Amino acid sequence: MTKLDVLVFAAHPDDAELGCSGTIAAQIAQGNKVGIVDFTQGEMGTRGTPEIRLQEAENAAKILGLTIRENLGFQDVFFRDDEEHQLKLIQAIRKYQPEIVLANAINDRHPDHGKGSSLASNACFMSGLAKIETFQDGIVQSPWRPKFVYHYIQNNYIEPDFIVDISDFWELKIKSIAAFGSQFYNPSSQEPASFISSPEFLPFIEARARELGHRINVKYAEGFTVERYIGVSNLFDLK
User: DSSP letters of the chain?
Assistant: First the structure.
């Protein structure tokens, strides 16, 4: 078993890179073990193929220095927050025993993001219930509930509950996003245009990071929402 400090759930390959790869890189730099579990292969996307997307995800994982990355093979667009899919996530949570889970935005332009958000939240709670039985390699898994579930912000603007300085990791974030070359602007591409392949999309990602950074007096940042209040014992822990 590989125990992770942080497990990132993502409805599609590239969701995590676009939404929170700066934070991922920052945690890894501090010695934390971080992994990503993608739900789908993004096979309903306008550009690329499942095979290309899987290779791109593997390349991005190497760039970020992830401990693990796996794909659950859910059906893109049609997966649900139901028992079948919850049990798959519970297996992953119990397998990796993360202290923190990062999940999709609570609502967004793409409906898979909101579904992915609720699926992850429900599975994180249910994973702590001993009477839900799951198996790994034929052995019953032990219950495990992450201490915290945070949601990264994607296309829709959502007011963050806290903001992470990623200024030192901006270039790494951009490299991890660029690993998904099939999805973003390329004037030589013969594939159909999509929402995220427009030449304006990546500048929008930078503008969002700059705007969030400005709010905490740094150059670049990523924002997150919480499911419960965050507590501190020392006011000086707040920056």
Answer: ----SEEEEESSTTHHHHHHHHHHHHHHHTT--EEEEEEE--TTSSSS-HHHHHHHHHHHHHHHT-SEEEEEEEPTTT--SSHHHHHHHHHHHHHH--SEEEE--SS-SSHHHHHHHHHHHHHHHHTT-TTS--EETTEEPPP---SEEEEE--SS----SEEEE-GGGHHHHHHHHHT-TTTS--TT--SPP-GGGSTTHHHHHHHHHHHHHHHTTSS-EEEEEESS----S-GGG--
